[in-house]
Automatic annotation (TrEMBL):
Residues in HTH tetR-type domain copies: 18-77
The protein's name: Transcriptional regulator, TetR family
Family annotation (Pfam families): TetR_C_43 (PF21597), TetR_N (PF00440)
InterPro entries: Homeodomain-like_sf (IPR009057), HTH-type_TetR-like_transc_reg (IPR050109), HTH_TetR (IPR001647), Tet_transcr_reg_TetR-rel_C_sf (IPR036271), TetR_SbtR-like_C (IPR049445)
A GO term, aspect molecular function: transcription cis-regulatory region binding
UniProt-listed PROSITE patterns: HTH_TETR_2
Organism of origin: Promicromonospora thailandica
Keyword terms: DNA-binding, Transcription, Transcription regulation
């Protein structure tokens, strides 16, 4: 067989393996929100309806699973922006719904730094990925709401996302702290200041 110098494409996963991986990512995200990233693997397996061996086959280390959940949720947030603009009654409503998804993502993401404490370069690369994927989505939602006259036009996506992130800090340490409610007030305030 002649060597053409081209790399062979990685083998595609079987459909059932892809389904198992998706179920694991969704289950792990739910468990991480409920119990944190240090939740027992058996809790994730039970949530996904798979055996523990299936988890270790897909994700040999806990950090592998945390990173995969992180990327999965970034992609879900990125895809939700355009879908919400099409389905929500107004761009401001779409922005509010997207921000709620973003808050849920931040809650899951909270333990990522701990899970990757020995991999500063890996964490920095994931943070860059997060910004590259989500800042443009947030900006498109803000632009649509501003074009509709619903919010002020001088709010940057990055500043809004920083504000949301700051409101979410510490939510895991105080069960009475409702970051989602505070973020809802922030988004509502964008509109009130424009109308006022």
């Amino acid at each position: 067989m002649e060597d053409t110098g081209e790399q062979a494409a990685p083998p595609r996963k079987r459909a059932d393996a892809r389904r198992n991986e998706q179920a694991l990512l969704e289950a792990a995200a739910a468990v991480f929100v409920r119990s944190g990233v240090q939740a027992p693997v058996r809790e994730i397996a039970a949530e996904a309806g798979v055996g523990m061996g299936t988890i270790y086959r897909h994700f040999p280390q806990r950090a592998d699973l945390v990173i995969a959940v992180y990327r999965h949720q970034v992609e879900a947030c990125a895809a939700a922006g355009p879908a919400l603009l099409e389905s929500a009654p107004t761009p401001h409503a779409a922005l509010g719904r997207w921000v709620r998804l973003f808050v849920e993502f931040l809650v899951t993401k909270h333990g990522l730094a701990g899970a990757m404490r020995d991999d500063d370069a890996g964490f920095a690369a994931l943070h860059g990925y997060f910004l590259d994927r989500l800042v443009p989505v947030c900006a498109s939602l803000l632009d649509a709401a501003a074009a509709a006259g619903e919010i002020e036009t001088d709010v940057s996506a990055l500043n809004l996302m920083h504000g949301i992130g700051n409101l979410c800090i510490g939510a895991d340490k105080d069960p009475g702290y409702d970051a989602g409610r505070l973020v809802d007030l922030l988004v509502a305030g964008l509109r009130r200041s424009a109308v006022g």
